[in-house]
Amino acid sequence: MNFKDQGRIANPAAARVGMKLSGGKLGSKLSWACGLAGWLAANLACAVEVTVPASDVVMKALSDELSRSVTLHMEDLEKPYFVQYNVEDSLVLTLSAEDGDITGSTRTRQRDLRTQVRVGSYELDNTHFAGGGGLDGTGRTSLPIEDDYLALRQGAWLATDRVYKDALETLTQKRAYMKDKNIVDRPHDFSAAPAVEKTGPTAAVQVDEAGWRANLRKLSAHFKRFEIVQDSNVRLIVGVQNLYIVNSEGTRLRVPDTGAILMFSAQVQAADGMRLTDGRLYAGLSPADFPKLDQILKDIDETVASLDRTRQAPVLERYSGPVLFDGVAGAQMFDTLLGAGLAGKPDIVGEQRRPQGADSLEYKLGTRLLPGSFQVWDDPGADRYEGTVLLGHYEYDDEAVAARKVELVKDGKLNTLCLSRAPTRKLSGSNGHGRSASGSPPTASVANLIVEDQKGLSDEELKAELVSAAKDEGLEFGLRVKAIQMPSVFSSRMDLMSYFGRAARGGGSKLGDPILAYKVSVKDGAETPVRGLEFAPLEVRALKHILAAGTKRYVLNHLGLDYSGSTPPVAVVAPAVLLEEAELSRIQEEYDKAPLLKSPLFRK
């Protein structure tokens, strides 16, 4: 299976971040939340089934409490017109290893309840108001992990009471605000959806813990062969979950989810102090989907070798010209520039003025976004691409709407958006893309974003086009970028502060810094690694000026972060892309000096 470039990790070695499985069929709702530790606990001698037993008691408790909740009222105030309970009943097992030894091992068992209460009507309710109490009609709490009917109802009762009171207060404030404002063309706050009644099987996955302990020891010990590696980490995460959704429209849904992540990272330091990190992330429904150990060891060798070349490479002061986003970098670019914009976002009453298209590309509907040979679609129902598992796969979204394939860009023109149940100014009706993460309410999100160029070129032709474009501009070389840093749940605190701090100041690009970049000589096509670059601001309009793209497509499985926390998992399948022009300049940063002493591993 083609796992080679499916995942890149930006500085996870220093992060030591835990993760939590959350929702429908692998990535659907694999919302890996920052800060939750999941370390493997048992030490069994053979493969065992890791499972979360399906519970009829949970479904009954939720259904019975829901029947009571829809009758809620305070004095002469309104009853809820919509109530929904989402329960994520999960078990996450994780192993972590460094330098040939196991460094972490725990089991995390949780039942998390997300309660949504809407007061008012589908046309106008307590959500999408900037002046509210911050809950936006949704609250999150933990439930007992034992099947105690009354204890489960108690938890749901307390959560519902709290969210309902907040909803009433928010709706009152929202109506008062709107009386004094001239608000035109405001979309409705919510759209109806058909009820779903389905009970899936129990989530379960086979894990050979003793075998994987041995594997992680071997993989992590492999880094001890390289003196240049200052820090390294190998981690295995396996999760199972049953997701329950019960709402006042009649939905009674239970779906299973299993997922597994194996990742490694390595960090080196250049002579000037710049730290460079790269790694791999392998995703699967279970550990059986991972590549063979020998292949992972080869990937480690390749990763360290490329880091060694990069750390010895010169710093490039400035570049402006054609850039080939090769390998997984093409998928990373599309995820960064297109991912958020292809999700329909509702208008927020009371929000301050924002630049057009800041959160959505809805204003570009019907206009050309990409060259005419490009097609883009999102398909949460796809679980694999050429054997590689896609993290964005799910059967039902977090609003109990069946996932649907959406043709987003046809012949280069933006056709529609991924939608949740929250209407936008121009579009209404969910297409099964309402997803949540970090305990936030469901919002529209891409899932498995697929990009195709019907005039794609071979790798050799793409390189020739890069050389030709650079020559036409009178340059001595073009630039090939093979991997880009992206904020993720595995990023280090330092990298996250740098990335989001730069964005908050209004400077820099949405694109992260190149991890692997090469000068490609116009004279003979020779490639020379360079480092220390950052992109100048690059907007979505630059995609109109794609000169060429490849036929081969690469998979990026990404567990991202934004200002609110972790984002829903996304898979982007896209070809290499030659952009007509991008600007990069030297990173202006002060670096720590290299360690004074050698690592104990290499002292004589």
List keywords for this structure.
604 residues, alpha+beta, eleven-stranded mixed beta sheet, 26 strands, disordered N terminus
Given the structure, what is the number of helices? 7
Major β-sheet, in short? Answer: 11 strands, mixed
Distance between the termini: 42 Å
By DSSP, the count of extended strands is 26
Bulk shape: globular
In which range does the helix fraction lie? Answer: 10-25%
Overall average pLDDT: 87
Q: List low-confidence stretches.
A: 1-6, 8-46
Which class do the helix and strand fractions yield?
alpha+beta
Portion in strands = 25-35%
Radius of gyration computed on alpha carbons: 25 Å
Brief digest:
With 604 residues, the chain is an alpha+beta fold. It is 19% helix and 32% strand.
Characterization of this structure:
- This protein is α+β, with helices and mostly antiparallel strands and 604 residues long.
- It is built from seven helices and 26 strands.
- Helix 1 (56-69) runs parallel beside helix 2.
- The two termini are 42 Å apart.
Secondary-structure blueprint of this entry?
Elements: E1 47-51, H1 56-69, E2 80-98, E3 101-119, E4 138-142, H2 149-179, E5 197-199, E6 204-208, H3 209-222, E7 231-247, E8 252-269, E9 275-284, H4 293-311, E10 318-325, H5 328-338, E11 374-378, E12 384-385, E13 388-389, E14 406-410, E15 413-414, E16 434-435, E17 443-444, E18 448-453, H6 459-472, E19 477-484, H7 493-504, E20 514-521, E21 527-530, E22 533-535, E23 546-558, E24 561-562, E25 565-566, E26 570-586
Parallel strand pairs: 5-8, 10-19, 18-26
Antiparallel strand pairs: 1-6, 2-3, 2-7, 3-4, 7-8, 8-9, 10-26, 11-14, 11-18, 12-13, 14-15, 16-17, 19-20, 20-21, 22-26, 23-26, 24-25
Helix pairs in contact: 1-2
